[in-house]
Design a protein that fits this description.
This protein is mainly α. Helices cover 69% and strands 2% of the residues. The termini are far apart. Bound molecules: fe (ii) ion (2 copies). It holds the Pfam family PaaA_PaaC. This is 1,2-phenylacetyl-CoA epoxidase subunit A.
């Protein structure tokens, strides 16, 4: 009869799990950090893997709309700045893939999910960049929204994620300023340049508000993420904060934010605004945005073109290991 022994092993395991869960809950309650070696509930691990890998994919795909303009930037200085910015985004992707790897998922697996179209990334990067002013609007609005989203993530309960975000946020503020400065220069230029800047703001404003995700009452996972100290503010709170930041900056720039209903509500101490077109958001999310297919095609090509680099690096590592073994 082995049943009783099995039962007791199971109950010891259960007891250990309870203890581990209690330790985890205690760390969260104290607003401490969870580190890779710590026990964590499966759902917490899965949520983080999904969020961090989606975030990494967004950084990598996010290089495309801007790399499109590197060869056409209007001056050597602008070219150098834009190149540095796009390289920063590559770096952000790499810190984040590394952070996700500490949770037990491989880089190769994440990359496969992305190029096979099974992973999500921020839908903002599926919009096109037809004019130079788009570089300004992306920096000001898209990187600006990213900062609002990401500053609270510096305090995310998972250590490697929070620490990666600290460095990323420093670079994002440079991105936001360079975008603002591109728009400022255009707004002080010719009528045509002013129109170009306003047109870019008109096209990027609403998609940048969508970056905060669906309204709070349609965001079912938010409460759990907040209970785990991953997320600190709700989607709508962050969206409000972002709009509050934009209004005075738009005045300095001299651009109009394309929402006739945008007004300060003294009673609510918040901005009233028009309804966001969530149908557009869901369409782009479902892969039917202006550039979804193009973004994935380019990523796949880049992955294939880079195969020789991965093979060469693996071969070099193999040779070094063999040399070390022979020496030993
Ligand atoms: Fe970034
Ligand atoms: Fe950025």
């Amino acid at each position: 009869m082995t049943a009783p022994a099995e039962l007791s092993v199971a109950s010891i395991d259960e007891h250990r799990d309870d203890e581990a869960q209690a330790r985890f809950d205690d760390l969260i309650a104290k607003d401490s950090r969870i580190e890779p070696r710590d026990w964590m509930p499966d759902a917490y691990r899965k949520t983080l893997i999904r969020q961090i890998s989606q975030h990494a994919h967004s950084e990598i795909i996010g290089m495309q709309p801007e790399s499109n303009w590197i060869s056409r930037a209007p001056s050597l200085k602008r070219k150098a700045i834009l190149m540095a910015k796009v390289q920063d985004e590559a770096g952000h992707g790499l810190y984040l893939y590394s952070a996700a790897q500490t949770l037990g998922i491989g880089r190769e697996e994440m990359m496969q999910q992305l190029i096979e179209g099974r992973a999500r990334y921020s839908s903002i990067f599926n919009y096109t960049t037809p004019t130079w002013a788009d570089m300004g609007a992306i920096g000001w609005l898209v990187d600006g929204a990213a900062i609002c989203n990401q500053v609270p993530l510096c305090r995310a309960s998972y250590g490697p994620y929070g620490r990666a975000m600290v460095r990323i946020c420093k670079e994002e503020s440079f991105h936001q300023r360079q975008g603002f400065e591109i728009l400022l220069e255009l707004m002080q230029g010719t009528d045509e340049q002013k129109r170009m800047a306003q047109d870019a703001v008109d096209r990027w404003y609403w998609p940048s508000l969508m970056m905060f995700g669906p309204p709070d009452d349609e965001s079912p996972n938010s409460a759990q993420s907040m209970a785990w100290n991953i997320k600190r503010f709700s989607n709508d709170e962050l969206r409000q904060r972002f709009v509050g930041m934009l209004v005075p900056q738009a005045e300095v720039l001299g651009v109009t934010l394309p929402d006739p209903n945008l007004t300060w509500n003294e009673e609510r101490q918040a901005y009233d605004m028009s309804e966001i077109d969530w149908d557009e958001f869901h369409e782009v999310l479902a892969g039917r945005g202006p550039a979804n297919a193009e973004r994935l095609r380019r990523r796949r090509e880049a992955h294939e073109d880079g195969a020789w680099v991965r093979e060469a690096a693996a071969e070099y590592a193999r040779k070094q290991a063999a040399k070390a073994a022979t020496a030993a």
